[in-house]
Specification:
This protein is mainly beta and about 80 residues long. The chain has a domain of about 50 residues. It has one helix and five strands; from the N terminus they run E-E-E-E-E-H. The strands form two sheets. Strands 3-4-5 form a three-stranded antiparallel beta sheet, with no helix packed on it. Strands 1-2 form a two-stranded antiparallel sheet.
Length: about 80
């Protein structure tokens, strides 16, 4: 993690800038024709990693993922 000062308009004023994530392969999310959630990490050359979450399990997947990441559940509607 790096922290450096970046100029912000006025050369006498500076704001701290924090890099939150290092460069990594792009991750995309979309729904397929069956309404399943697809997560794909684009790798080069043609070695993409794909995760398919069945449409009936999307809420459970997100709830467990956020719980694992330490983000509290908001108790959203069940699908």
């Amino acid at each position: 993690m790096s922290v450096h000062l970046a100029p912000d308009g006025d050369m006498n004023e500076q704001k701290a800038e924090l890099t939150l994530l290092p460069p990594q392969d792009e991750i995309v999310a979309y729904f397929n024709d069956g309404s399943d959630l697809i997560l794909r990490q684009k790798c080069r050359p043609d070695d993409d990693q794909v995760i398919c979450v069945h449409k009936d399990l999307i809420s459970q997947f997100i709830d467990r993922l956020t719980e694992l990441a330490g983000i509290p559940s908001f108790g959203g509607p069940e699908r």
